[in-house]
C-alpha cells in the first residue's frame, strides 16, 4: 500500500519533532520542508521564513536559509506586510508583485533591494494563545498560482497539529526551566540564611532581614548576594538535588 503525500509529510514532521530540542529548532526544520514542498509545486526556487506569535509578540524563529530568516525579519522591522496580515486574518495573504501592489510600500521597497518580487504568507493554527505563519519568498512574479497557494494551505493544515505539539513541548520545557531556576534560587537563599544564623546566632527571620538589607544596600539581586555568601564559606556554588 502506497502512503499518501499527507501521510508521508506527517511521518517527516514526526521525525522532526523527535529530532529537535526546541520550538525554534522545530520551526526551522519545518521551514526547510515547506520551502522544498512549495518549490516542487511551483517549479521554482522558493524560500521560507517562520514567524511565531506568542503572548502578543511576533518573532522570526527560523527559515529554510539564512537569507529567508533575514527576509522574514525585514517585515518584523517594518511592522507590516503579508506575513503579519495573514496572522491577523487567519487566511493566506498574497503579495503577487512587489512593484505594483499598493499595500506595503516601505516593505516592498526593501524586498526589491533583496531581489524578491512576490511573497505568500500562510498561517498555521496553534490555538488560543499562539499562532505561526509561513512566509514564502520568490524571486519572480507568477510563482504563487492558485494551485500553489492551495498546496501551501494544505501543507499548513497538515503541519498545524505538529506545530501545536512542538509549542506545547516548548512551553512545558520553559516551565520546567523556570521551576528549576526558582528552586536553585531558593536553595542558595536558604543556605545563606543558615550561614548568617550560625555566624550571628540569630533566628531565620533575622537572618533573612540581614540578607535583604545587604541586597538593598548593594543594589544586587537577593539570589546573587546569597550565592556570594555560600561561595565564600564553602568555595562552591549552591547546588539543588532533585529529579526533573
TrEMBL record:
GO terms for MF: kinase activity; RNA binding
Residue ranges of every copy of the ANTAR domain listed in the record: 169-230
InterPro entries membership: ANTAR, GAF, GAF-like_dom_sf, GAF_ANTAR, WH-like_DNA-bd_sf
Keyword entries, A-Z: Kinase, Transcription, Transcription regulation, Transferase
Classification via Pfam families: ANTAR, GAF_2
Matches recorded under PROSITE patterns: ANTAR (PS50921)
Highest rank taxon of the organism: Bacteria
Name of the featured protein: Histidine kinase
Naturally occurring in which organism (per UniProt): Pseudarthrobacter sulfonivorans
Amino acid at each position: 500500500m502506497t502512503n499518501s503525500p499527507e501521510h508521508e509529510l506527517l511521518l517527516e514532521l514526526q521525525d522532526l519533532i523527535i529530532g529537535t530540542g526546541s520550538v525554534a529548532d522545530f520551526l526551522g526544520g519545518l521551514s526547510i520542508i515547506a520551502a522544498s514542498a512549495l518549490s516542487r509545486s511551483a517549479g521554482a526556487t522558493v524560500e521560507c521564513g517562520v514567524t511565531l506569535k506568542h503572548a502578543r509578540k511576533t518573532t522570526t524563529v527560523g527559515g529554510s536559509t539564512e537569507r529567508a530568516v533575514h527576509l522574514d525579519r525585514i517585515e518584523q522591522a517594518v511592522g507590516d506586510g503579508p506575513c503579519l496580515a495573514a496572522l491577523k486574518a487567519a487566511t493566506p495573504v498574497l503579495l503577487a508583485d512587489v512593484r505594483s501592489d499598493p499595500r506595503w510600500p516601505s516593505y516592498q521597497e526593501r524586498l526589491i533591494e533583496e531581489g524578491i518580487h512576490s511573497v505568500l504568507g500562510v498561517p498555521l493554527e496553534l490555538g488560543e494563545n499562539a499562532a505561526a505563519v509561513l512566509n514564502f519568498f520568490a524571486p519572480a512574479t507568477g510563482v504563487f498560482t492558485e494551485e500553489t497557494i492551495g498546496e501551501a494551505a494544505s501543507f499548513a493544515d497538515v503541519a498545524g497539529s505538529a506545530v501545536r505539539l512542538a509549542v506545547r513541548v516548548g512551553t512545558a520545557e520553559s516551565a520546567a526551566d523556570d521551576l528549576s531556576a526558582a528552586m536553585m534560587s531558593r536553595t542558595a537563599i536558604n543556605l545563606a540564611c543558615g550561614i548568617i544564623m550560625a555566624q550571628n546566632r540569630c533566628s531565620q527571620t533575622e537572618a533573612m532581614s540581614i540578607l535583604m538589607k545587604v541586597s538593598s544596600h548593594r543594589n544586587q539581586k537577593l539570589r546573587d548576594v546569597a550565592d556570594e555568601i555560600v561561595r565564600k564559606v564553602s568555595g562552591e556554588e549552591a547546588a539543588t538535588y532533585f529529579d526533573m
